[in-house]
Amino acid sequence: MNTDCSEWTVYVDKNVNGIDLDFEETQHLFELPLPVVGGIADEIRREKCGELVTFVIDRNISYTNRCVSSCKFCAFYARTKKESYVLSKDDILSKVKETVDVGGTQILIQGGLNPAIRIDWFEDLFAAIKREFPDVQLHSLSPPEIDFIARNEGLNVIETLERLREAGLDSLPGGGAEILSNRVRRVISPDKIGANRWIEVMAAAHDIGMKTTATMMFGHVETNEDIVEHLFRIRGLQNRTMGFTAFIPWTFQPQNTALYEIIKKPVSATRYLQVLAISRIVLHSIRNVQASWLTQDFEVDKLALFFGANDFGGTILEENVVTAAGKEYKPARVEEIVKAVESVGRAVAQRNTGYEVFGGG
After folding, report:
1. 359 is a domain residue
2. Which end of the chain is less congested by CB atoms within 10 angstroms, N or C?
3. Is 360 domain-assigned?
C-alpha cells in the first residue's frame, strides 16, 4: 500500500464503522511514518471521543509481595520469606481513607499469587472497605489472581467472581496480560496463566456483567506479530462482550528484573507512541485508550493525546510494582494533570472507573 489520503481514510472509516482490520493491514501500520500512524489514530480519537481528556483520582495498593509465579519481568515479588509481607486490613483501610480524603474514587488492589491468602480474606476486606467507604469503586484483582484464588479454593471462575462481587468487588483491572502470546509468555512468565486463560477469566467477568479494563506491557521479547496477536485477542473478546471499558498499553521497565541481562533499557518514546496509535486504530470496539505517564512522563503523555489517547490515567497516589523495577515515581497532583492537558489546548475532567465524568470539562 502507498501512504496516501485514501489509505488514511480507509483506516479511519473501518475503525469508526466497526470493521476489523486483518493481519496484513495491521502489520502495515508498523511500516508507516510515525506522524502518519499518529494522525490516523488522532482522527479516530477525535471522531469517537471528541476533545475532552479524562483522569481518575486513584491509588494502587499492593496487598502482598509473596508470589509463586516469579515472573522474569517482575522486580516486585519477594525473593525470600523474610522480605515477604501481607498488609493488614487496618493498613489497607487507612490507605483507602487517605485516598477518599483527597477526592479519590478508585482503589486498585493487586498483589502476588500468595497461597496463604484465601478467598474469605478478600471477602472480609472488600466488605469492610464498602462499609466504611460505600462510594469507592473497587477496581481490583487481575485475571491471574482470580484464576489463582479459584484454584486455591476449588471453585470455578464464575463462582469466585460472584462471591467477590457480593463482597464489594466492582470491576477487574487488566493486569497480568503482558503480551497475550504464549510464545512470549513461555519466556517472561512461564508459571503464570496462558493467553487463553487470561481471556477466559475476562470473558467470565463480562458474562456476569462485570466490566474490566485491558492492558499490554511491551518492550521486552515481543515482536510486532506478537503485539498484533495481543490486540486481536482483546478485540475478539470485546467484539463479543463489549465488557472492556478501556485499553492501557505501557512499557516494560527492565531494571532489577531477571530480564535486565538482555534488555538494559525501556523502549523509546517513539516506539511507545507508535504502539499506542496502532492500538487505537485496531481496537475499534474499545472507546477509551489511556496514556501511561507512570512509565513515560508528562511530556510524552501530552504527545499521547495526539496519538489516540483520550484519557490521562490516574493520579496514582501509591504504586509499588513499576517502581520496584527502578522507575522514578511520585504521585500526580490533580492540578498537574489539569495544567498538562490544558497546555495542549484540550478540555479536561475528572471521571470515575466507569468513565463517567463528574467534574470539570
Report:
1. no
2. N
3. no
What CATH number is associated with residue 270?
A: 3.20.20.70
* CA-closest candidate to residue 271, choices 227, 302, 311, 229: 227
Cell of 52: 475532552
Q: What is the pLDDT of residues 287-305, one digit of tens each?
A: 999 998 888 889 999 999 9
66: CB partners within 8 A, 6+ apart: 77, 78, 84, 85, 86, 112, 114, 116
Cβ proximity of 280 and 308 under 8 Å: yes
> Total structural domains in the chain?
1
Nearest to 185 by CA among 65, 69, 329: 69
Instruction: Please indicate, yes or no, if residue 14 is contained in any of the structural domains.
Output: yes
Maximum alpha-carbon separation in the chain: 61
Low-confidence ranges of the chain (pLDDT < 70): 1-6, 75-76, 318-329, 359-361
The angle that helices 269-282 and 34-49 make with each other, rounded to 10 degrees, is 50
User: Position of cell 472492556?
Assistant: 244
Domain, as residue range, for 185: 5-354
Contact (Cβ atoms closer than 8 angstroms) between residue 289 and residue 45: yes
**pLDDT score of 101:** 95
- C-alpha to C-alpha distance for 298 and 311, rounded to whole angstroms: 13
6 φ/ψ angles, rounded to the nearest 5 degrees: -65, -40
